[in-house]
Design goal:
CATH architecture of the largest domain: Orthogonal Bundle
Structural class: alpha+beta
Order of helices and strands: EHEEHHHEEHHHEEEEEEHEEHEH
CATH topology of the largest domain: Arc Repressor Mutant, subunit A
Strand order of the largest sheet: 9-8-7-6-10
Number of strands: 14
CATH superfamily of the largest domain: Winged helix-like DNA-binding domain superfamily/Winged helix DNA-binding domain
């Protein structure tokens, strides 16, 4: 049997796709890093299908591609690309070819991939994403979900409802989210008054990304005041508006975790009685909770202690939360409790 350094479809043996496919293919043989000619027909068919999908997705994404570019990307000959394109055309994919220096392949306007090319898991992920977005934007997605269900040939059911709005809110009609979504898509600067920890002021930002994390929405963008990427909580924005000023494409902002990392926070140790277990398990990670013999719960976690937020949070337990460490947090919490008591004592004396 004749051995060749390339398979009959023109793939170089150094191409990673060939090695991966061949390892999982039981229909072929390999020897000394070479493929036995005609011994792996299934491997050949799989590689041809992969090339076909690559060509279609490339044309859908970029609108245009040349045969030499596709050949370089797929590590095959230009002749093989022309054969693949002919096969796609014969299968009903409307690919147009143009001659000349600016020529190449393109798809006829209106072509789209059928939904059957997505796996059931991918279809479920897409439907979930549509439901999640509709919950935030407040837009009715029933028509879109119906169309996707028809495209995927599956009946939409209501086994899952995604609702990201807070309890008691009027529904997912947050105009800030829609304004920021539009500003990001159209690359328009936004301006707003921002209430931070102990500070507030006007900010002009080139918006880059919306992030949902820890039950809250954040905007990541380039702050013109700080001349750096910053993260802003949507609930702290006031008087949000578009300025009408455009900007050039931004680089990807750093991961949101890089702005504030838990490692920068001091370790806090808290004790809660058993009757507070429903809140403790709901609001802290399981790894941070230790169940004591008397039923109480000890929480050990790194938390911010310098902006007053933690004291307010602990007071929301109505005196049931006990600070075990650090000592400075005990002192600060006691001071908060005294000020609160003084406020209400004055009110009682006046009445």
């Amino acid at each position: 049997m004749l051995r060749r350094s390339v398979c009959q479809e023109g793939f170089s043996l150094s191409h990673p796709s060939l090695r991966i496919v061949h390892k999982t293919c039981r229909g072929g043989m390999a020897a000394a890093g070479q493929l036995w000619y005609n011994a792996c027909g299934r491997c050949t068919r799989v590689m041809k299908n992969q090339r076909s999908f690559h060509i279609i997705h490339r044309l859908l994404r970029d609108g245009h591609a040349t045969a030499p570019d596709l050949a370089k990307e797929l590590e095959v000959s230009v002749r093989t690309i022309y054969r693949d394109v002919d096969a796609l055309c014969a299968a009903g994919v409307p690919i147009a070819a143009e001659q000349g220096r600016s020529g190449g392949f393109s798809l006829m306007e209106g072509f789209s991939l059928p939904g059957s090319l997505m796996t059931p898991e991918e279809q479920a992920q897409l439907l979930l994403a549509v439901k999640s977005t509709a919950s935030v934007t407040g837009r009715d997605a029933s028509s879109l979900l119906l169309k996707l269900g028809g495209l995927f040939q599956q009946q939409e059911d209501d086994w899952l409802t995604v609702e990201l709005t807070r309890w008691g809110s009027p529904g997912g009609t947050d105009e800030r989210f829609q304004l920021l979504q539009r500003a990001i898509r159209e690359r328009r600067c936004v301006q707003f008054s921002y209430v931070g920890a102990g500070t507030s002021g006007q900010r002009t930002v080139q918006p880059a990304r919306l992030v949902y994390k820890a039950s809250a929405w954040y905007l990541q963008g380039f702050c013109l005041l700080r001349q750096a990427f910053r993260t802003f909580k949507l609930n702290r924005m006031r008087a949000l508006r578009e300025t009408g000023e455009g900007f050039d494409p931004l680089p990807q902002p750093p991961p949101i975790e890089s702005f504030v990392t838990a490692a920068e926070y001091p370790e806090v140790k808290l004790r809660f009685p058993a009757e507070m277990a429903f809140r403790v398990w709901d609001e802290f990670g399981g790894d941070a909770i230790t169940e004591e013999a008397d039923g109480s719960l000890t929480v050990t976690a790194r938390m911010p202690t310098d902006d007053g937020w933690l004291c307010g949070y602990l007071l929301s337990f109505g005196g049931a939360a006990q600070v075990l460490a650090p000592e400075e947090l005990k002192t600060e919490l006691a001071a908060h409790a005294r000020r609160m008591a003084e406020t209400y004592e004055k009110d009682l004396h006046r009445s």
